[in-house]
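Priority: medium. Attachment 1 of 2:
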């Protein structure tokens, strides 16, 4: 192996590639493609060829002045043509195959005590050529450091993962690593009607705990909103995140001390606590501090308070559209009334974008029958709510920008 590593090139059928070029290829990243590497190699070859031509011509020049008969010099050779970028890519692939066992060892030597398993369709949508359409889901297992332990392609979500689980347990067993303690999932964490399917896959890990991933936990709350395009959706999810997470006080205190020292070095003068807080950016918090959960009791209290707030009158937008779905009233199924709507003759005569605000302004639901009744204080002109001057979120629809005033005219006896 040591003797083989001293060979300076990789041989192919017609050409040979220098090891230094292959090392350059290993650093290929976004914006640093094979074509870019080919241009750099071509530039280096051109410079080396130009230096040799200049050296040759410099040696020939004195003989043209000292001789009576001009000697005949041979033309310098042309610049050899380089192989195409596609050939460089093929040579790089052959070099990777030569280190396949080493690459496999590095990939299978990644472990962790806290795992997370999730599936996505984004990877399979990028499959092209003969592999296009052969898989629908990509399931990944990562550890607490963000490293991927294994990744498999399947035709359906959650199916055919037994072989992946067996291979993962085999890697832990052969490496002598302790089994993981927790695995986070998007489902099957609180199964009360039978054995957990995830534990059934990882039979060798008896002490494995299956828990719900926090991101999917937040997404479960999003299932109770009327639409994700609602103007209050972003505000609700941000406050939900603050109800679950908080910045680590020790990390924040250390960051404040560092920021105070930075401001003191600039000789700004007296530095108040408020001034230090305003100078700490969001990027600095993410870079130097970590977040932690608030605890079960505190999180439960804050989430209940948040849902109560958005389920009240504060959870409506400019056209009185509720943000959260209201739960049905308690009682027998026969007592539950469907949501009241405008009378059919009103809906037929008014454009659709006028229905919502007119229903909430001119009518009121009867608590006994559930039917809409006109408000007692009627007037001629009714005006829709105006859209806010400043929008913190994109509007859910353009309807409330085009609502028009309503002129209500009825016979005298109907008033």
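Attachment 2 of 2:
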């Amino acid at each position: 192996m040591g003797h083989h590593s001293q060979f300076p090139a990789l041989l192919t059928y017609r050409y040979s590639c220098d090891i230094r070029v292959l090392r350059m290829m290993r650093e290929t990243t976004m914006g640093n493609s094979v074509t870019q590497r080919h241009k750099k190699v071509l530039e280096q070859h051109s410079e080396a060829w130009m230096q040799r031509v200049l050296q040759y011509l410099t040696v020939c020049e004195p003989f043209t002045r000292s001789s009576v008969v001009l000697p005949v010099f041979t033309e310098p050779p042309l610049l050899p043509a380089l192989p195409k970028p596609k050939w460089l890519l093929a040579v790089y692939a052959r070099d990777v195959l030569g280190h396949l066992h080493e690459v496999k060892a590095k990939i299978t030597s990644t472990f962790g005590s806290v795992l997370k398993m999730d599936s996505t369709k984004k990877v399979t949508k990028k499959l092209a050529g003969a592999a296009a359409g052969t898989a629908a889901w990509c399931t990944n297992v990562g550890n607490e450091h963000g490293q991927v332990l294994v990744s498999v392609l399947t035709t359906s979500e959650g199916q055919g993962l037994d072989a992946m689980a067996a291979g993962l347990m085999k890697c832990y067993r052969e490496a002598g690593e302790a089994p993981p303690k927790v695995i986070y999932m998007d489902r099957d964490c609180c199964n009360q009607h039978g054995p957990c399917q995830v534990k059934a896959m990882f039979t060798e890990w008896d002490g494995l705990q299956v828990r719900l991933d926090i991101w999917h936990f937040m997404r479960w709350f999003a299932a109770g909103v009327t639409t994700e395009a609602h103007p209050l959706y972003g505000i609700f999810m941000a406050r939900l995140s603050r109800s679950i997470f908080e910045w680590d006080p020790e990390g924040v205190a250390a960051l404040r001390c560092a920021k105070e020292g930075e401001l003191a070095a600039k000789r700004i003068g007296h530095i108040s606590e408020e001034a230090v807080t305003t100078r700490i950016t969001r990027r600095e918090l993410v870079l130097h501090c970590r977040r932690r959960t608030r605890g079960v009791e505190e999180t439960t209290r804050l989430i209940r308070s948040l849902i109560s707030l958005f389920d009240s009158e504060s959870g409506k937008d400019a056209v009185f559209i509720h943000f959260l779905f209201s739960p049905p009233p308690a009682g027998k199924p026969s007592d539950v009334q469907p949501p009241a709507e405008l009378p059919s003759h009103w809906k037929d005569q008014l454009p659709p974008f006028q229905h919502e605000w007119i229903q909430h302004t001119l009518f009121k639901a009867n608590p006994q029958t559930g039917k809409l009744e006109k408000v007692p204080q009627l007037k001629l002109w009714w005006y829709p709510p105006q859209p806010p001057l400043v929008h913190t979120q994109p509007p859910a629809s353009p309807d409330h920008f085009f609502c028009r005033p309503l002129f209500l005219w009825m016979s005298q006896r109907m008033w």
